[in-house]
Every structure is written in C-alpha cells, then in structure tokens.
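FAQ: What does the model actually see?

It sees only this:
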Amino acid sequence: MQRLSREESRALTRAKLLASARVVVAREGYENASVDRIAEEAGFSKGAFYSNFNSKEEIVLELLETHSMQDVTEIAALLGDSREPLRTIEIVSNWAQNRSVDRSWGLLALELFRRARRDQTFGERHSNLFRGQWRGLGEILLSLFPPGAAPADAEALGGVVLELTYGGASSFKAGPTAGDMVRMVLTSLYRAYGKPARGAAAKKVAPAMPKKAAPAAVKRAAPAARQRAHTAPAKKKATA
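And it is asked to produce this:
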C-alpha cells in the first residue's frame, strides 16, 4: 500500500474530524459538543484537532460551508440538463420537503450564530456563510424566467427557497410543509413573471393590400367627367 503524503494525510485527518463533528454536534447540540468529544469520536487526540482547526467554532463553520454547497450540487444533479419550468419547480419542491425533515442543519446554524453574537466572534465569514449556496440555487431558478424578467436576483431567489427549507418552524407543526410552501412560492412567481404576459405576444397584422391601379381608360375619363360637372349650367328653377 502506497504511503500517503503529508498533505494527503492531513486532508484525511481533517475529513475524519469534520465527519466526527457532524455526528457529535447532531447528537449533543452545538453548545454541548466539545473538542474532546469530536477528537475522540474521530480517533484522534485533542492535539490533532488543534493542528487542523483553531476552535470548535471554526470546524462547525467549515462543516456548514461544505454542506451548504453540497445542496446546490445535489439539486443540479436531480435536474440534469433539463430546465423545463414546471419540472424544475416540482424537483426543487420535493428536495425542500425531503431536506426539511432533517432539522439539525438549520438549528446548528442558528446555535452557531447565536453563540458567535454572544462571544463577539461573529464576522465576515459568518455573515457570508450561505451566500454562495443562495446564489448557486438562485442561478438555477433564474431559468424559470425569460432573460431580465426575474422578480429578484439569484441570491434572493435562492434565499427564499432555502430559508423556507431550513427555517425549521414548518417541520415542528401540522399544516403546510416546507415543500408545499416552496411549491406555492415558485409556482406563483413563475405564473407572474415566467410566462409571457397575456396579450404580450405580438399579433401578426395582415399587411395592407396595395390599392389596385385604375385602368388607363378610367384615369382618362375621370378628369373629363369632373370638368363637365364643373362647367354644366345649373338648371333654372321652375317659375310659378
């Protein structure tokens, strides 16, 4: 068996630690998960953890970044090369429904942000965490609309779907699901902005038929008739 290079070995260690963090955080929550538990679950020492990550916050940030872009890849794979609007809406809605069943990702992000705010560590990396994910999905959703007709930019379109998917409240209650709401929003946007406006299609107007030229004999006769009408003496009125 070929020996791994130092870079390959380090990448493997990071991957195992990330997988361990996912398991530990899902089981114990962000607050209760510890660096010791994450390292132990992965089969490494605490020192190995700190050789790869500065803190629990950093490993969870990377975990969320990786997961968020996997969502875009997964949706793109489900769609394939087709961008037929109604099929796209159905696939994205079903994906949202299936993804929303796992509440841990949305809750993990909220826990991380709340703790970062409290510890005053919230920074640019936190605020931009999901922008790539939102923009990636939004670029797919732009295919629902004619060029320049979308009601919002790619980031906002993707954000609407992903916030409904990971918002969390719909998965704790009876009634409309995340998939139902995503389907309703995308269908409404498509009907309002995706289809050509009623009557907008240019109607083909039949070109005006050119007037037929009058025969030469008629052309010659017309002026003569007008001249006679002009010079003819008026009839005298009958006298009593």
